[in-house]
């Protein structure tokens, strides 16, 4: 199993979630997060923002589904033709075990 954490622009979240659902990946946890990446924040007029609002999507998928999920996120989270700073990041981690609390079963 693989944990996919993607941090994306809030404006792209609904289309990313819709495409993941259409592709057969309905299970996701969404959280509002704030931070900055390589752009180190942004200045609008005289105000500097160093905590930019983003959304984090968490998904646990089978190893063989990782590439499909990453491709969907990359395609639909990207803004503009060539993408833009601040479009987000995707982090992949192994998951050793997972349990469903109600059934006490392990796995996905």
Task: Give the arrangement of secondary structure elements.
Elements: E1 2-8, H1 10-22, E2 29-35, E3 42-44, E4 47-49, E5 52-61, H2 66-77, E6 88-94
Antiparallel strand pairs: 1-5, 1-6, 2-5, 3-4
Report on this model:
There is one protein chain. The chain is α+β, with helices and mostly antiparallel strands and 108 residues long. It has one domain (2-94): 2-Layer Sandwich (Alpha-Beta Plaits). The protein has helices at residues 10-22, 66-77; strands at residues 2-8, 29-35, 42-44, 47-49, 52-61, 88-94. It has a four-stranded antiparallel beta sheet with strand order 2-5-1-6. β3 (42-44) and β4 (47-49) form a beta hairpin. The longest helix is centred in the first third of the chain and has 13 residues, at 10-22. The N and C termini lie close together (8 Å). 13% of the residues are buried. The mean pLDDT is 92.
């Amino acid at each position: 199993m693989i944990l996919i954490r993607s941090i994306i622009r809030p404006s792209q979240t609904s289309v990313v979630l819709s495409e993941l659902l259409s592709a057969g990946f309905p299970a996701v946890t969404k959280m509002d997060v704030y931070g900055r990446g390589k752009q180190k924040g942004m200045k609008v007029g005289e105000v500097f923002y160093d905590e930019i609002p983003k959304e984090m999507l968490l998904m646990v998928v089978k190893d063989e589904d990782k590439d499909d999920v990453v491709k969907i996120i990359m395609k639909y989270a990207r803004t503009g033709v060539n993408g833009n700073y601040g479009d987000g990041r995707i982090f992949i981690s192994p998951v050793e075990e997972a349990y469903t609390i109600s059934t006490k079963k392990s796995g996905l």
